[in-house]
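Example (one chain per record):
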Amino acid sequence: MAARHDSQEDPSEAGSVGLPDFGDHIDQMTFEQILEMDDDEDERDFSKSIVFGFFDQAEATFKNMDASLENKDLAQLSSLGHFLKGSSATLGLTKVKDSCEKIQHFGASKDESGTTDVPDKELCLERIRKTMGPLKRDYNEAETLLKRFYHDS
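Predicted structure:
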């Protein structure tokens, strides 16, 4: 049985691929799973394409959300929130995912947890408006962190 060199072969859970501290914006474990798909850890072409594809997707979705807010289209807002929630969760963008989930619920005429009906359309729209600011701010912070990680800022 070969001797094991713990310091060389037993990476820590947090930062096993040399990740910076993303704080509470990006779930390290989830993001590491994306990075594990890269063939070349120096270039990281595969994960970078996923992340930068998400940026394009998110920007387009924000425009659609803004238009849907103008049109007072709760069903479309719920659908867009659900869509962006899924893709942000895949990358580990925790705060973005949480805000998108709230928008999904508000668009479905529910409270932020999705458990209680809120029959007041204007109240739901106002809650979505109030959620959009933190959503875009959290997205911008996560985008900055990820672009810095990929040396693309």
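Caption: The two ends are 47 Å apart (CA to CA).
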